[in-house]
């Protein structure tokens, strides 16, 4: 199949003739570069302060590879400028945030059995190593940035499969001298989200665990004290990813899971537990990543899944505890490790970006706004 032979001037014409609201002409035309390596995750942010969203990819997983920055030149068109670091690492995750409080976006990487690193932005989208983050060399699988201690700066949360998870506390200037572990060395935590799940004003931790381990919400009782755990799921789920959103619009945050084995569920929150469920995907799609957001700007939170050697899907929330399942492209099956939602062309609709292992990293422009106008 031809992967890149069209001209961007054709995009508006071709878009009008497409039924699918998620648009990538020819299936492969919109991609981040031409490399086919083991991409593990994608993050977006305006790293060069020019008003549009750029992309950082985390590469390699167990095998060292260069992480890359793709600079958006407008309308969702990217050029590759450089690799992030000349010293390659076996990277599973990269996240963007202002770690040193100077107003621009820095990068932190989570690496497998290699030190986790943060990179300082010079304000123009160029980066240099600033220091290590985390207490030890660990099998890191994911990174999240959050002001978990409520002091006004971004802390770094690491999930470490087969080792205790860590919170690296930021002093406000990008120094991470205090490490708070949570969980145990037996935990197989793959993903984490910080959110106020019981609405007490403190951020809690929502964990996705593999190896048939119980998934938990760790409630923050005091400053960085996580004693009470609320279980969700069967206790033996192979959960690879979690996302948080008020799916049923009842005012309480819900948990959306992506499972490597079996069906995927929404666990409805009520401020106390997550016992009520909605199976939003009953097929076993080997889901590796799940994200939630309002894709069509109708006031309901939708779901997007990344699957292993399967078609990736968006699930449009109908508002009736049910979803319309839409394939991003029914002809394409890739080993997608991460899915990311961001408005990369500035039309106020969230687009979809894929981190694919051993294939092109594709992205799909969201045409929901154009379809509404056509109707």
Could you explain the architecture of this structure?
Residues 1-15 form the signal peptide. This is FG-GAP repeat domain-containing protein. This protein is mostly beta strands and 375 residues long. Helices cover 3% and strands 44% of the residues. Strands 1, 22, 23, 24, 25, 26, 27 and 28 form an eight-stranded antiparallel beta sheet that branches. A four-stranded antiparallel beta sheet has the order 2-3-4-5, with no helix packed on it. Strands 6-7-8-9 form a four-stranded antiparallel beta sheet, with no helix packed on it. The longest helix is centred in the last third of the chain and has 7 residues, at 368-374.
Q: Indicate the overall shape.
A: globular
Mean pLDDT: 92
Order of helices and strands: HEEEEEEEEEEEEEEEEEEEEEEEEEEEEH
Strand composition percent: 35-45%
Could you tell me how far the N terminus lies from the C terminus, measured between alpha carbons in angstroms? 32 Å
What share of the residues lie within helices? under 10%
- How many runs of DSSP E, i.e. beta strands? 28
Signal peptide: 1-15
Organism: Croceitalea marina
Keywords: Signal
Protein name: FG-GAP repeat domain-containing protein
């Amino acid at each position: 199949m031809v992967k890149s032979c069209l001209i961007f001037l054709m995009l508006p014409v071709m878009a009008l003739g497409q039924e699918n609201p998620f648009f990538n002409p020819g299936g492969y035309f919109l991609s981040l570069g031409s490399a086919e390596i083991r991409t593990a995750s994608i993050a977006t942010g305006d790293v060069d302060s020019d008003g549009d969203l750029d992309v950082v990819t985390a590469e390699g997983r167990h095998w060292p590879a260069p992480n890359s920055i793709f600079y958006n030149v407008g309308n969702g068109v990217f050029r590759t400028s450089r690799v992030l670091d000349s010293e390659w690492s076996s990277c599973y995750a990269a996240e963007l945030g202002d770690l040193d409080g100077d107003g621009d976006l820095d990068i932190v990487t989570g690496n497998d059995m290699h030190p986790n690193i943060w990179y300082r932005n010079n304000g123009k989208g160029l980066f240099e190593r600033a220091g290590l983050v985390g207490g030890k060399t660990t099998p890191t699988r994911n990174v999240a940035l959050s002001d978990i201690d409520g002091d006004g700066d971004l802390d770094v949360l690491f999930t470490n499969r087969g080792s205790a998870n860590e919170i690296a506390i930021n002093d406000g200037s990008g120094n991470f001298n205090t490490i708070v572990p949570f969980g145990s060395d037996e935990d197989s935590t793959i993903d984490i989200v910080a959110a106020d799940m019981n609405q007490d004003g403190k951020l809690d931790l929502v964990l996705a665990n593999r190896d048939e381990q119980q998934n938990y919400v760790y409630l923050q009782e005091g400053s960085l004290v996580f004693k009470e755990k609320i279980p969700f799921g069967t206790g033996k789920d192979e959960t690879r990813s979690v996302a948080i959103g008020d799916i049923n619009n009842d005012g309480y945050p819900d948990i959306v899971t992506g499972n490597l084995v079996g069906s995927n569920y929404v666990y409805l929150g009520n401020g106390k537990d997550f016992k009520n469920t909605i199976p939003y995907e009953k097929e076993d799609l080997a889901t590796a990543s799940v994200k939630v957001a309002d894709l069509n700007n109708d006031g309901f939170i939708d779901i997007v899944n990344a699957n292993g050697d399967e078609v990736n899907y968006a699930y449009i929330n109908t508002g009736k505890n049910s979803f319309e399942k839409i394939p991003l492209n029914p002809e394409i099956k890739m080993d997608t490790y991460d899915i990311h939602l961001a408005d990369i062309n500035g039309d106020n609709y969230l687009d979809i970006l894929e981190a694919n292992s051993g294939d092109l990293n594709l992205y799909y422009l969201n045409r929901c706004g154009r379809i509404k106008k056509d109707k």
